[in-house]
Amino acid sequence: MVEEKFEPLIVAFCCNWCSYAGADLAGTSRFEYPTNIRIIRVMCTGRMDPTFVLEALRMGADGIIIAGCHPGDCHYQKGNYMMEKRFDYVKKAVKSIGIEPERVKLEWVSASEGAKFAALVRETTQQIKRLGPSPFRLMHNPKQVKR
Amino acid sequence: MSEREILTRKANAAIDAFKSQRLRWVTGRSQVKVEIDEERYRRVVDSIMQDEIERHMIIGAIKEKGALTVEELSQSTGLQPSRIMQHIIALRRNGVINEAGEKNRQYLYQLV
How far A135 CA lies from chain B's nearest CA (Å)? Predict the structure, then answer.
């Protein structure tokens, strides 16, 4: 069996008002970051249902980034606070199904922090590479080499 | 049961648990207007979350295989029979499952 080199698949849920604009700025400012990320725009991190994270992991994502506005800067006043509270439960649920909770991250990235967004993607990609493929990824693609 | 099956079943149960009204109610609050300290509230939510995930594992197993006994449920979910029984009592009280005859002198449980 030919083993493939492991390239993590990271799903990033970015809020429309800050982090998505931050990701956009990272692109227009030509900051380089790995191509392992797939960005999904949500209107607010408060819109993030815990099932989004669990579904993404079940479908084979190796890592999840939830990026929203800095505390106090939420376009909808308190959406990011709601996510912050919910995030603890998300991590616990991820742990309880047998997946490392470090695969799921919550970060604050504002619209002016393109460099921070690029650094976040680089750092997360490295971290997930160290952790190896998620058990669900291995289930979908058993050829994936563990490193 | 293979490791793969257990993992898939657990993930499905966790997703179903977060779709359930009970868990949505306690995790979706931005502010809690009850006289209870934060740490205690978190402990309560943690236990509700664990219960809901386990209950949805039971519901998932019955959905998949039809009516099952406590022993069979224990085999397919990996939970202790005593724990299964606790959940059976709650699910039965909430009208989610009921008895569907007997097998080897044990009650069979089906979804309502």
Answer: 8
